[in-house]
Specification:
Helix content is 47%, strand content 14%. The longest helix has 43 residues. The protein has eleven helices and seven strands. It has two domains: 107 residues, no CATH class; 163 residues, 3-Layer(aba) Sandwich (Aminopeptidase). The protein starts with a helix and ends in a 15-residue tail after the last strand.
């Protein structure tokens, strides 16, 4: 049966379920073929037209986004927003978003299923190219006296960029077989390293009473940390709630006592250990006070920053009606400096976030 005859035969048949029951198998098969061919052609045309439509809509969306910053040619459309434009043209925004999602997903699948690059072949080619480039670079270095400064700068930038890209390929050096003397020297060095240890408040206070220059032991604390070297305790730090009521917001802790016997780096290690412990406990800020006559080198080494100077200097802690109150000493009237370290900026009030900036 020819194509024209097939079209005439199918056109003469009224599409109702009753006619299907009375048709022969051959006629029904011919009808299916004809309708399938027409539907396939219509679907292909519809798919092409839909792709064209959505690509044009994507470009129009880009122009609407650009309109927020620059003046464009969208004024004659009389559509202030992108969604308003879609609805004025009879296009559902949900259908457009669904098409974009399908298109992005198809592009992602195509990228993931693309043929993988043979990395070893590519690396072999790079080796040959690098060998030739190294020879050219040696020639340039030998004749660098006549090199243009601008070109030399460009070459330096390109080489540094290449070195930065190739940095992940640098493998760690092979571990050498250490001799017995080297192993003994390493063990001795590790034995002499500083080590953090937990301390009871009583132990920390004993060290404060022995070594602190101008403060006495305290009676309450949040936690205390010690540092030892060669098994001997050489420093301690005690943390408690801030002494100033205005700074006691529940998220701040204060290093109120810190003392060492002069061991190198012990102070910085204690300050860093206190900050780390406070952060693990959920505190947002840790602070401490130094005399204005002290440099604060250990705090700088531990990553703390100077927040305020000339704090205190008055006998505000003295209570006349309390014989066991704070005693006035020589350092009571010395001004102090407050050093802080932020541990969790998200939990701090806005007024305290100025320090983080």
């Amino acid at each position: 049966m020819g194509k024209s005859a097939l079209v005439k035969a199918t056109a003469a048949v009224t599409v109702t379920p009753a006619n299907y029951a009375g048709m022969t198998a051959t006629a029904l098969d011919n009808l299916i073929k004809a309708q399938h061919t027409q539907c396939k052609a219509l679907y292909s045309k519809l798919e092409r037209n839909s792709e064209t439509l959505y690509l044009a809509l994507e470009e129009m969306e880009r122009r609407f986004e650009k309109q927020q910053r620059y003046r464009t040619d969208l004024k004659p459309l009389k559509a202030p927003t992108w969604h308003g434009y879609l609805q004025s043209r009879g296009v559902q925004p949900a259908a457009y978003r669904k098409w974009k999602s399908r298109r992005n997903q198809a592009a992602r699948i195509k990228t993931e299923t693309s043929a993988p690059v043979e990395v070893n072949v590519l690396a072999s080619r790079l080796v040959a190219e690098c060998e030739s480039l190294s020879k050219s670079l040696a020639t340039v270095v030998e004749s660098r006296g006549g090199l243009d400064p601008a070109i030399a700068k460009q070459l330096t930038v390109a080489l540094s960029y290449a070195a930065r890209i190739a940095d992940p390929l640098c493998l760690p050096p092979a571990r050498e077989n250490l001799s017995e003397d080297a192993k003994a020297a390493r063990a001795l060095r590790q034995a002499g390293e500083l080590k953090k240890v937990p301390l009871h408040l009583r132990q920390a206070n004993e060290l404060v009473a022995q070594l602190h220059r101008h403060h006495k032991p305290i009676h309450v604390a949040k936690f205390s940390i010690g540092v030892e070297k060669d098994g001997q305790l050489c420093g301690a730090a005690i943390c408690m709630r801030p002494a100033s009521r205005a700074l006691d917001d529940g998220k701040t802790v204060e290093v109120c006592r810190l003392v060492t016997d002069g061991t190198d780096n012990a102070c910085s290690l204690l300050y860093a250990a206190c900050a780390k412990t406070a952060k693990e406990m959920g505190y947002s800020k840790i602070q401490t006070y130094l005399l204005d006559s002290e440099p604060g080198t250990s705090l700088k080494g531990a990553g703390w920053v100077l927040e305020k100077t000339r704090c205190g200097g008055t006998a505000q802690g003295f209570r006349k009606n309390r014989p066991n109150g704070h005693k006035i000493t020589a350092v009571t009237f010395e001004t102090k400096q407050r050093w802080v370290k932020l541990l969790n900026s998200a939990a701090l009030p806005k007024r305290q976030l100025q320090l983080a900036a």
